């Protein structure tokens, strides 16, 4: 193998790789072309030389240039209308800064570990995780690869990772306070998924404000943040003799399901039953629902997530920062 003195000002070329490895330029090209015919030992020698002198093939340079401007979004609940809205907002903000978005949509009941290898192989500049559970092993892998991660619309304090979320606790309080102010006392709950921060904090806020008024949650059922789950939970809550006069749902799609159930039961909204959701998805404002809800500041949440990604003082190895943004109570006809 011939000697090669690397210039600080010039990038190594394929011709230099060929010279040092003692092969033809065509052989270098074939070494970097998947499936191309080339002796195994010769390919190994060429790749070793390329690594030693710092040569990158055109395909590799293109891939690295793309990955440097690519942000990966990992989402696990795109059937919930809230998350396509988040996706649309993120895509538009990235386009404005001439960056690209790569989306991994996880199947139901799977965590991020199932796509870890694919995500890391793509070498994104950063990863945003929403509506999916980030395991400690995935967080550790991202730190090892120096990839910054931001959780959006959820907080996982156990893995000490960057997070941007709505103030879910205050949102739960605001919903409960409105119902109390309007005279409702038998206030029930349709929860989401028990181990998520969105469910825990919204329920804690509702329970807190009811306790201050000397009350408690009248009854509760879990809807798993889905329409089908909300529909079943609504039937469960409204089928008993001592049915609630108001229901707070931990997201809008479950609240819409509860309104549909209430109408099947012949109940008037809000005279017989008040319903409040959380998110303010587009359907919440439809005249057929007129859903009172807590609006999440999606545009600001996305902006704050990108600020964390773009801030050079925040390192992938850091413990992470948590940014909480206030939601807005939007009153419509359902409560």
From TrEMBL:
Transmembrane segments: none annotated. Signal peptide: none annotated. SUPFAM superfamilies: lambda repressor-like DNA-binding domains, Periplasmic binding protein-like I. Keywords: DNA-binding, Repressor, Transcription, Transcription regulation. Pfam families: LacI, Peripla_BP_3. GO terms for molecular function: DNA-binding transcription factor activity; transcription cis-regulatory region binding. Residues 12-55 form the HTH lacI-type domain. This is DNA-binding transcriptional regulator, LacI/PurR family. The lineage of its organism: Bacteria, Pseudomonadati, Pseudomonadota, Alphaproteobacteria, Hyphomicrobiales.
């Amino acid at each position: 193998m011939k000697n090669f003195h690397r210039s600080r000002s010039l990038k190594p070329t394929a011709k230099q790789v060929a010279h040092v490895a003692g092969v033809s330029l065509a052989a270098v090209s074939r070494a970097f072309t998947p499936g191309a015919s080339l002796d195994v030992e010769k390919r190994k020698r060429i790749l070793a030389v390329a690594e030693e002198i710092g040569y990158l093939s055109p395909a590799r340079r293109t891939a690295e240039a793309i990955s440097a401007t690519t942000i990966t979004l990992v989402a696990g609940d795109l059937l919930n209308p809230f998350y396509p809205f988040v996706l649309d907002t993120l895509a538009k903000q990235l386009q404005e800064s001439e960056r690209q978005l790569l989306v991994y949509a996880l199947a139901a009941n799977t965590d991020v570990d199932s796509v870890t290898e694919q995500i890391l192989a793509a070498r994104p500049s950063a990863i945003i995780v929403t509506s999916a559970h980030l395991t400690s092993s995935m967080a550790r892998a991202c730190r090892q690869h120096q990839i910054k991660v931001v959780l959006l619309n959820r907080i996982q304090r156990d893995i000490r990772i960057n997070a941007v979320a709505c103030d879910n606790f205050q949102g739960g309080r605001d919903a409960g306070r409105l119902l109390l102010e309007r005279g409702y006392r038998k206030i029930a709950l349709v929860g989401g998924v028990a181990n998520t921060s969105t469910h825990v904090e919204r329920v804690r806020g509702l329970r807190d404000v009811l306790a201050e008024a000397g009350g408690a949650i009248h009854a509760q059922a879990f809807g798993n943040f889905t329409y089908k789950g909300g529909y079943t939970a609504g039937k469960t809550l409204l089928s008993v003799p001592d049915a609630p006069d108001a229901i707070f749902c931990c997201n809008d799609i479950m609240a819409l399901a509860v309104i549909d159930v209430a109408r099947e039961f012949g109940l008037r909204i809000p005279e017989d039953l008040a319903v409040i959701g959380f998110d303010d998805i587009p359907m919440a404002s439809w005249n057929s629902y007129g859903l009172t809800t807590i609006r999440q500041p999606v545009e600001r949440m996305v902006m704050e997530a990108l600020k964390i990604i773009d801030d050079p003082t925040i390192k992938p190895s850091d413990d992470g920062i948590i940014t909480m943004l206030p939601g807005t109570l939007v009153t419509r006809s359902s409560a």
